[in-house]
Amino acid sequence: MDSIFNAIRSTGFRRGPKPVLGGVCAGIARTLGIEANLVRLIVVALMIFAGLPLAVYLVVWILTPAQDGSIPAQTFLASVGVGTTGTAAAPQYPTTPAQPTPAQPAAPAPMPTPPSSLDLPEGVQNVPYAQDR
């Protein structure tokens, strides 16, 4: 992945030292040796009349180096953990000792059995539970 960004840097093109928006027009003007405001005017006219999308400008801005050589796309990829091989780095999780699992709750107590006629005092009727009706 670094070879792609190094190839872009080797072109010698840099975004302008005094950017208004992203510095792309100032970089083009510096490379061509013309006034930056003229390039800005041409780019705006192309966006309005020729249908040059703003997305093209953004892609150029993302892929071209600034004066210090930093490329926004490369900086972003490094910040999200994409390594030099182009694969995402393994996420780093804190290493904490395994927590013991909580004990399983005890099984509910069995339902009481309805009293039999032998257990009832004299004169008391055996009334069934509501669920037995």
UniProtKB/TrEMBL annotation:
Residues 17-66 form the Phage shock protein PspC N-terminal domain. Pfam families: PspC. Keywords: Membrane, Transmembrane, Transmembrane helix. The chain crosses the membrane at residues 38-63. Residues 97-115 have a biased composition (Pro residues). InterPro entries: Phageshock_PspC_N. Residues 88-133 are annotated as: Disordered. The keyword Lyase does not apply. The keyword Disulfide bond does not apply. This is Phage shock protein C (PspC) family protein. The lineage of its organism: Bacteria, Bacillati, Actinomycetota, Actinomycetes, Micrococcales.
